[in-house]
Amino acid sequence: TSTPTESALVDGSELAGRALAAAGASHMFGVVGIPVTAVATRAVAAGVRFIAFHNEQSAGYAASAYGYLTGRPGVLLTVSGPGCVHGLAGLSNAWVNTWPMVMISGSCDQADFGKGDFQELDQIAAVKPFVKLALKATSISEIPRLVQTAFATACAGRPGGCYIDLPADVLHQTISETEASSLLSEAANPIPPQIPDPEIAEVEKAVSLLRHAARPLIVFGKGAAYARAEGAVKKFVETTGIPFLPTPMGKGLLPDTHELAATAARSLAIGKCDVALVVGARLNWLLHFGEPPRWSNDVKFILVDVSKEEIELRKPHVGLVGDAKRVLDLINREIKDDPFCLGKTHPWVEAISKKAKDNVAKMDAQLAKEVVPFNFLTPMRIIRDAISAQGSPAPILVSEGANTMDVGRAVLVQSEPRTRLDAGTWGTMGVGLGYCIAAAIAEPNRLVVAVEGDSGFGFSAMEVETLVRYQLPVVVIVFNNGGVYGGDRRTPEEVTGPHKDDPAPTSFVPGAAYHTLMEAFGGKGYRASTPDELKSALSESFSARKPAVINLIIDPYAGAESGRLQHKN
Ligand code: ADP
Question: Given ligand 1 and candidates 68, 283, 305, which is best to mutate, with the most ligand atoms within 8 Å of its CB?
Fold first, then answer.
């Protein structure tokens, strides 16, 4: 005779919920519905916190950013068919940015597939282009192992997304409690594979190149941030005196205000350096492919990346495959035996520092002007000062929008690692609210401040309700210039044809009261069109640490079309 517990039956939903908890998922983002509602409730019962969104696109963006911030896969749960398709936004974002994520979607009954079932889709084929691994459970007993495999694969080597398909009939199958427990323990967490170190001879070659360079530079990106390489980066920069350039999301590994920061002398630094140590950053469009004319013809690249394929693609002078922190530790150790330091009077360091100071002074002069109706710079300076006044732990900044993100990148100051989330490698707009929610969940001690355009905000503005529901400390500042890039920029010749009286494709309703959207859910809304109004809204909302939207009224003609990427439009 068996005890009641032994004879109790466990269904696929419960097993999935327990497998997620066993795999170490502390949070899950998503939208419930047929057939996954019970997966969410069972996971919650097993100790996983479920953050319920309005749409899977935002939830997917949240899961991807959570993976970046925590180093553990962010989990997205979606319904079948259309839910899975909406989730592809997040999955593709994880893939392009190389962040660990696991997407789990319900799917239609296997027996009815091909007959035109409710929300029928070959979901494995749909996710394939964006994942490291796509798995489908064909019977309940496979669930624990698939969950463990997806979690381990998402983080192994170059991080990325994995997918698990859970058909409705599999979720409804049952097994005994005894069998469930043994399946869960058999699938126990595997020991993560160690990333091997690069050959020591290659490390020596890299150090020798740096030692003999006339104009060395270190560039680091979000791969170094993901690797938590800030300590090793600091040691490298401070012992060698080599100037550094962070990519947008690499900002904060060392403070932007550091005397060796080349951020404000970016064109000079990349245009004139002769040896560039690039750590956890791809030589893609964000770094001008590492090619002339932006880089010099004979620059020698030393690339550090966890991905061998990435290094093979770029064919650098020296390629060091490995974990960014570990490789920098090896480099630092190699330098320690025979240290070198450029020093402040080194001509290259002086040139960078002078250029950076000049550019900062020019920017400060622009920022000092108080322009009302607001341009982008005046409010950005006020926001910068309010964020800096928060001290440590520094707020996490979420940024999107063409002009808002461009100006924000130049003006806002990052002083701590992994405190900037922006449109990233995908150049995606609409990530803002999802990123805010992920940041507030992943880093509960930090305030989260979103600085975004009205267009970026509009993609997922309804998620302000999610902020209120979970009472997250997020202040969303909407740069409201009434449209994508702002006011109507068409020439009179372009305003013609039968639909000439329609609003421009770039326009929204002028003067939209975005702050009242937040008030509709019981959050705090502010409208700010003057420096005093903005300062008071920032000071009140930052100290309240409660969900707030600041509707910041900007001159509709202050920005440029396509921001800094006009040449690509
Ligand atoms: P950015 O946008 O900051 O320039 P990218 O996303 O282009 O950065 O590049 C990040 C790179 O970091 C990717 O090529 C990825 O393979 C790599 N990477 C990810 N994790 C690690 C790690 N632990 N160590 C080294 N490199 C890593």
Answer: 305
